[in-house]
Fold this protein.
Amino acid sequence: QVQLVESGGGLVQAGGSLRVSCVASGRTFSALAMGWFRQAPGKEREFVGAISRSGQSTMYADSVKGRFTISRDNAKNTVSLQMNSLKPEDTAVYYCAAGPIFGTYRTSLYDYWGQGTQVTVSS
């Protein structure tokens, strides 16, 4: 079992930046590929980006490419999502997820999920 706990969400003005993090426990973190997803009210959960086990590879949804950056620190069991140039449409609950496959956007292929952290971007 893996437990994931997100933190760092909040309220920010459009154009601002925010960093959300996720700490994992219960299993060797470096053996897990990590992903970030988000879900806005009334919408399906959508893929934001992912990072490989080593952290050497990342991929992003087109909607966030160039604005968001995912990183991980395997020594601290932490994965982070740095969000810059935020837009009101980025408002959502952000979830980190862990699984065996790097880069998949399919929620069903992630085995473990955090509880989510709210990010609100005001216009």
